[in-house]
Amino acid sequence: MKSDLAVAVILLKLLLNLNFVNSLIRRDYSVHAGKNITIPCIKSVSDTILWTRDGNNISSNLNDDNSLVFIDVTSNEAGLYICSVLKNSSSDTQTSYQPHMQAQIKVKTRPGAVGSFRARATTIIAVLIWEVWRNRTGNTPIIDFTAEMRKQPEIFPNNTEENVEWQRLDPQHIAPNARQLEVYHLVPNTSYQFRIWASNEVGSGEIYTISTRTVAPVEEKDLIMRILEDAKEFKKEYWIIAVGIVMGTLLILTIGTTLILWKECRESSEDESDKDLVQNMHVILNPGFCHDDDQNRPLSPIKTHFYGYGNHYNDDYEKDMTFSRKMSIFFTGNTIKRI
Q: Strands 25-32 and 97-108: what pairing?
């Protein structure tokens, strides 16, 4: 019986704690660095209030109305604050506080320096590369980047630095998602300084400066020396493989070209033989046709004239008569003879 009662008490406490967790007030605050902020506990002034941060009690920065006050906020004040109220219960032998509100303070600051800022320079071109780290955005999105350049200042004997002005690189406002920028028209074999910074709604961030030097132009003699050095390191087996590939390619092209030409010649000869066969069949089927120069047209019909008595010419008896000619064709070897 007693065990059942103990279990019921534990379940009741868990239920009360669950209801308390659901009723806990949560507030988020965002403030620019250097500004002031006041966080009320939203509880009666007559109640006993306790502010804590990360389990540590806060005795300072409190107003008479139990609100928490910060002046000239810095990033150190960012964190989770809990406002608790003293519980009034006769059954409790010890003093205990019940959390009433949670306040999350986020301090917006200027962005920190970009990460891994470096430059890859050639003779007249330099590529600037950088990264963005999440813990350096200042708790607010980055709006844009700004980059500048100048020639490396010289140091005079009296330890004074040459005054060289910085030049703004285009575009004036680099997109927030950009991570590299190309710089053109540099002077070969010259030292340059590049710097870049990010900006957000609070302001401009920390500047990151690097130095680099462009590459000197390669002269013909230096180029020849490099080629000779590479040739010495190049193995003979590579030459043999390269020549074999080239010769094999030429051989395949030669064979392919020969096959194409042979196929075209064969098709043209077959066409000529077909034409001769057609002409011979035309002669057989058309006996009146002749290929000789003096017989380019078919034989004309034969006219026969009839004369009357007295050997007088009589037009009335003139008639045109056409005789059909019977032909006999004999095959003698490879020739055709017409009779």
A: parallel
Strand order of the sheet with strand 191-199? Answer: 167-168, 144-151, 191-199, 208-213
106: CB partners within 8 A, 6+ apart = 28, 29, 30, 31, 78, 139
**Backbone phi, then psi, for 94, in 5-degree steps?**
-115, 155
Query: What are the tens digits of pLDDT across the range 324-338?
Result: 544 555 555 555 555
User: In angstroms, rounded to a whole number, what is the distance separating the alpha carbons of residues 52 and 81?
Assistant: 6
Confirm if 114 and 198 have CB atoms less than 8 A apart.
yes
* Cα–Cα dist 171/114, whole Å: 18
CA 297/CA 318 separation, integer angstroms? 26
* C-alpha closest to that of 120 among 212, 223, 242, 57: 212
55 vs 282 pLDDT, higher one? 55
Other CB atoms within a 10 A radius of the CB of residue 140 amount to 17
**DSSP symbols for 183-220:** E-SPPTT-EEEEEEEEE-SS-B---EEEEEEPPPPPPH
Distance of CA 136 to CAs 10, 31, 132, 206, Å? 47, 17, 7, 10
Q: Which of 76-80, 111-115, 170-174 has the lowest mean pLDDT?
A: 76-80
Identity of the amino acid at 265: C
State the residue for tokens 């009741």.
Answer: 12
* Token pair 């506990």 in the structure block, residue: 41
- 283 contact partners, CB below 8 Å, separation of at least 6: 289, 291, 336
Q: Torsions phi, psi of 71, nearest 5?
A: -115, 135
CB atoms within 10 A of CB 105: 20
pLDDT in tens, 102-136: 889 999 999 999 999 999 999 999 999 999 998 89
Task: Give CA–CA dist 208/131, Å, rounded.
Answer: 12
Distance between CA atoms of 112 and 52, rounded to whole angstroms?
29
Q: Give the span between the Cα atoms of 206 and 198, in whole angstroms.
A: 7
